[in-house]
Amino acid sequence: MILRAKYVLPDSEQLIENGAVLIAEDKIIDSDGYPSMNYSKSEKVYDFGEAVILPGLVNAHTHLELTNIHGQVKRTENLADWLMQLMKIRDWNERVVEQAISVGIAMSLAGGASTVADITNSGWSVGTLKRSSIRKLVFYEAIGFEQRRLPQAIANLSANLDAVKPDALLTFGISPHAPYSVAADLYRKCRDIALSRALLMCTHLAESQSEHEFLMSGTGPFRDLLKKLGISVDDWHLPRQTPVEYMRSLGILDCSPLLAHCNYLKESDIQLLQASNASVVFCPRSHNNFYHRNHPFEKLMKVGVNVALGTDSLASNDSLSMLDELKFLHKAQTSTPPETLFSMATLNGAKALKLHRQIGALQRGWQADIIAVQIPPIAESATHGMTLKRKVIEKVLGDESQNIFTMVAGEICYNRE
Length: 417
Fold this sequence. Notes:
Blueprint: E1 2-8, E2 16-24, E3 27-33, E4 45-47, E5 51-55, E6 57-62, H1 79-89, H2 94-110, E7 113-120, H3 126-131, E8 135-142, H4 150-163, E9 170-176, H5 184-197, E10 200-205, H6 209-217, H7 221-228, H8 243-249, E11 258-261, H9 267-275, E12 279-282, H10 284-289, H11 297-302, E13 306-309, H12 322-332, H13 338-344, H14 347-352, E14 370-374, H15 388-396, E15 402-408, E16 411-415
Helix pairs in contact: 1-7, 4-5
């Protein structure tokens, strides 16, 4: 099979005009100019015309189980209040979750994501995800703040990990939820399980200023939330540390974890992340939904921390489109080179999920996870001193672009035409 378009972007450093990608089964065989492509005349050719062929986008943090509650949670800057709203209104049963997952997968593929890192609270989503053609890393969530609840939380986690076998498109990870909902001993046990099973670990971290207050002084909205839920903090040892310092003290940073959000970091926190092999996932539109400002992703990347992008859920976002996520960030962060944003949604995401050298670029022998994005024509006079490659990426990130095709492992999963 051959995919052809006016432009091919194998990665943020290369542009091929009148390009094509040759695919056999689930692998990329070659990417080159179409006239130079060596292929059999019997190969089927998909010609996308005025479009850009690029690596499938990686959604490094989402909660597809929440797809069905879009618009039902009131926007607020108080994360604890938002979580309470969520717990009160969710229609939560296996049928609803499976339906939400199916819709979420379709939205993700249409929005240019070929890979999702999805967190499941119930475990009900895994069957639907396994049957789907999207590439996925499913994190089983662990929650338990009181010591008496830890044995059951650990038993549930182990049972879930043993229930479904991974495959070529499905891998698993562990996600202790957050410092205000997971006891230190449960974090340590999750770390041990992740290391013993060679699984990636993810946690929500430094998402709000209230989280910092809770860990430093034991006060604030999260203490109030736990009290409302009837959860005791009597046997909790107050860390008196920032969220990042707390993760270091528990040995979590030693596991090369995936850290969701990291909205509020001190300079010393950034230094700790620099010294670790952790990756950070920035969710721009969810960040904006909670009225956060000035995410430190540029500071993190400047010191060498890998930063990927995610949509979070439809409880705090308006779509699951990774292309929309990129467009929003491009408008909001005009100082960031478009090539950097492109990498954050592709190769950086692959690195964050430990899938690099498999996905994230159009390289020979890598998985054929590919999208095609239709863009308006580019006149030669319209580059205004910038390189054609940058102009093409800017068009991909512009308002008029549309994802028209998504392929995962050589299988066409979305075709607008």
